[in-house]
Amino acid sequence: MPRAKIFLSCGQRSESDEIGIAEKIRSKLEGLGFEVYLAFEQQTLSDLKANIFRALEDSEYFLFIDLVRDQIKVEGETIYRGSLFCNQELALAAYLEKPVIAFQERGVKKLDGVMRFLQTNCQEFADRRMLPSVIAEEVRGKWNPNWKAQLALEVESKPTDATMMVADEIAESRWFHVRVRNLHERKLALNCYAYLKHAKNQVTGEEIPLETVEFKWTATKLPSVMIGPKSSRCFDAICVLHRNPAEPFFFANVYCDSLRYFPSIKGPGTFSLTYEVVSENFPPVSKTLTLNLSRQLDEVHLSDPNQPGAVLDGAVSQCPPNTTGD
Length: 326
Fold this sequence. Notes:
Distance between the termini: 37 Å
CATH topology of the largest domain: Immunoglobulin-like
Strand content: 35-45%
Shape: elongated
Number of helices: 4
Largest sheet: 6 strands, antiparallel
């Protein structure tokens, strides 16, 4: 089950109780089923890029906790500034259009920094001890932990046997599919393309050179597809002919009219294949699968080494194949 990630932006000064508060908030949110990234102040630009920026981009939600910091005087009134670092993270979250829930401790200067430009209703609090419970109740009512802003690849449980035309003759073929799931609860995945990114002979250790060619999506002649929220599509990862199952028949499942662009994978043998799917509005996603090629058709299978039971070696699938051979 996918878990939505909350980017928790909260002050963590060691000389106060901020670290303890942040940890209690994280614990409450994890208890609700969320994954939580607790942002630590970074000292260098490389740290920001490697940690903060990446975590922000990968998070589904942004939780802003503005705690009282240094005392300042504005027009004779004694108020306090909040965390500059947290406000900078808030600006980045706004740029990335992340859903925001914001809390501000009583006494912090109102509408400071980027806060004045946001439509976020920043909730004031006075008792730090009650804050984790108050936040958990607010998050419970507004955010859903059971989704991710990403695509996911998985092997189909069984391949499909089908009849197709090959060189003006009828041939029996077997198709192995990879399913691509859109784990987002609302967003349509646009212009999704599938590729074989890396291939290696696991017995000899030989790296197989590859050209960039698009793989066919099942049941369509279009090179790219859209995948609806909480929906999925399959692409045709491998096709073999019954009469020669030890050698994949890439004529059937890649968009290519040049023989030198077809992957040169010939069995018998065991190969690791890394497939990648790119989308116009989702991060690229890849998965490495294991392909076993044999002269015996029923010994040909595609499997996920991280899921021991996920082996493609049957004869029925929910994904119909492309059977045109073009």
